[in-house]
Amino acid sequence: MAWTDALVDFVEKTALLRETIKRRGDEEHYAARMNRIAQKLDALAAALEEHDPAAAAAVRSAWGRPVRSLAFRNAAHRAGKDEDS
């Protein structure tokens, strides 16, 4: 697994946790922490932008729309398995 894949997977899981917190109604309790995470991820994506724009876009997508990001990665993974068969 490439480092970008691992990073995107981590960001997706963190964003999915954020969504769970929202659904449970605990958003106010964790708002400051989630804001700091969002700031750090934005800084990371900005730093990546210079050397790897695709990785930066993937990080932003994984944080902003984790379910969509995960669905696209799963579809790409399935397509890759079909080609190997």
Describe the structure.
By secondary structure, the chain is mainly alpha-helical. The protein has one domain (3-84). It is 92% helix and 0% strand. It is built from 4 helices and no strands. The longest helix is centred in the middle third of the chain and has 25 residues, at 27-51. The radius of gyration is 14 Å and the shape is flat. The model has no long low-confidence stretch (mean pLDDT 86).
Comma- or semicolon-separated keywords:
mainly alpha, 92% helix, 4 helices, 85 residues
Q: Could you say which structural class the secondary elements and strand pairing correspond to?
A: mainly alpha
- Taken as a percent bin, the fraction of beta residues is under 5%
Query: pLDDT below 50 for ≥5 consecutive residues: which ranges?
Result: none
What is the total tally of β strands?
Answer: 0
Number of helical regions: 4
SSE pattern, N- to C-terminal: HHHH
**What does the radius of gyration come to?**
14 Å
Assembly category: single chain
Overall 3D geometry? flat
Averaged pLDDT, please? 86
Largest sheet: none
Query: Helicity range of the residues?
Result: over 70%
Q: What is the rounded distance between the termini?
A: 20 Å
- The tally of domains stands at 1
Task: Give the helices and strands, then pairings.
Blueprint: H1 3-24, H2 27-51, H3 53-64, H4 66-84
Quick synopsis:
The protein is 92% helix and 0% strand. With 85 residues, it is mainly alpha-helical. It has one domain (3-84).
